[in-house]
Amino acid sequence: MMPLIFMILGLILRLSLSKALKAGLMVGIGFIGLSITVNLMIDSLTPVSHALVERFGLNLTVLDVGWPARRRWQWGRGLARWSFRCAWLLTC
């Protein structure tokens, strides 16, 4: 969905079709790369966090992976449309 939004936004801002398409594809590739990175990071850190809990007797229930996971969640849930609308309304 986001690559299409960026492509349309590029066309609205008078980019050529090829540049808008390239921008949309780059955004899509970037999100795929970010998703792969976050998944690999979670797969690597989960056993470590479980070992820390076992070793030191901690009570940890959440593995914080930082902003990439939150961004992936936001874009995946459709909140981006509302974010763009709110940002647009605030700047106009």
Automatic annotation (TrEMBL):
Species this protein is from: Raoultella terrigena (Klebsiella terrigena)
Any one cellular-component term (Gene Ontology): plasma membrane
One BP annotation, GO: phosphoenolpyruvate-dependent sugar phosphotransferase system
Keyword DNA-binding recorded: no
A Pfam short name: EIIC-GAT
GO molecular function: galactitol transmembrane transporter activity
Topology term for the membrane: Multi-pass membrane protein
Entry's localization field: Cell membrane
Keyword terms, alphabetized: Cell membrane, Membrane, Phosphotransferase system, Sugar transport, Transmembrane, Transmembrane helix, Transport
The protein's name in its UniProt record: PTS system galactitol-specific EIIC component
